[in-house]
Amino acid sequence: MIAPVTLYFVAGFALIHVVITMLVGAARVPNQIHFYDEGDLALRRNMRAHANFTENLPMALIAMAAAELSGTPAVWIVLGGLVLLAGRGMHYHIIRTKGWGPTRAVSMLMTLIPIAGFAGVTLWNLTT
To answer: What is the pTM of this model?
Structure first.
């Protein structure tokens, strides 16, 4: 059994991951910072934005796949995935440019709500 909707999101997020990983590397080059951040705020923000993206996506995609494999209609998977994509994009942008702001909390909710929703519908599907 495959989860075709989730696979599109996995592929898209994987390509985004490659780009933001390369942006961290590119931020290291001008100041020749090979390890850590050596106090460079722009590099630190790049690193944290990348790390936060990397920390949150695996569970989100696992929960999405579980929801899809357990029988959740594709429209709900797509909607949850689009909210997740928007939330991750907002969060990444905010961390890189400002570091903090009220929209950062909103963007985090746009990550956590789909994860919780996918988990909830998976449990619902398994028990009905």
So the answer is: 0.88
